[in-house]
Amino acid sequence: MPHSVLLVDDHNILRDGIKTILEGTDFRVVGEAANGADAVRLCLRLRPDLVLMDICLPGMNGIEATAEILRRWPGAKVLILTMNASENSVVAAFRAGVRAFVLKKSSSADLLNALRTVANGGSYISSQVSDLLLTRIQRGDMEEKEDLGPLGSLSPRERQVLRLIAEGKTSKEIATMLDLGLQTVRTYRKTLMKKLGVTNVAGLTQMAFEAGLTGWTKRDREAGD
Fold it and tell me: How confident is the prediction for the chain on average, in pLDDT?
């Protein structure tokens, strides 16, 4: 019986390409999502065997979505498929619980190998990514080097909400993206203003941009995806 796969990427053409690669194999695409929030909802509804996840997604990014999926469904098996990999994004992804990290420039054979390895209970890392990790281990440095300044006192969820505010999302949009109640989001806004010592959304946005909180890390943003 084929392994069910949920595809998560905001580019239709890439999802179509992956579906073509998986045709006639032991994998079957059962759902597609173009953002992290939809990925979480579909994963919980469809319960796929594997989730193939991009990092750079609208709203909730792939690492945040992975953490949320595994919080709600610890048995999920998530594979990252991304364009570029910084050291911080690789470390953050595995800390979130992913089982594989594959670059989009990898071959179709590598992608299928990663899917089969994870489906059979193993883990997989593209050779380019393993070189990054090896270098970091040899330096004795496996800690993320992100300086959030005054944002360091915020919880991961608070930083997530703040990032979406900085991107111009309304409370209603944030509630939908993160699957939260509208009042909960409004409470987060008030808490953020109190913690950061500002009195309006413009102040929150300014602090978010000054801290580089527009992705998982500053380096990830600079590297692109």
Answer: 84
Give the separation between CA 36 and CA 15, rounded to whole angstroms: 15
199/192 Cα distance (integer angstroms): 10
Verify that 58 and 20 share a domain, yes or no. yes
Which residues are CB-neighbours of 35 under 8 A, at least 6 positions away?
10, 57, 58, 59, 60, 177
pLDDT tens track for 154-192? 887 888 888 888 888 899 988 888 888 999 999 999 999
Instruction: Please write the tens of the pLDDT for every residue from 140-151.
Output: 655 544 545 677
Termini Cα distance of the chain:
34
Beta carbons of 48 and 79 less than 8 angstroms apart:
no
Do 69 and 26 sit in the same domain of this protein? Answer: yes
pTM: 0.68
Range of the domain at 95: 3-138
| Sheet with 78-82: strands ordered across | 27-33, 3-8, 50-53, 78-82, 100-103, 124-125
| β-pair type (124-125, 50-53) | unpaired
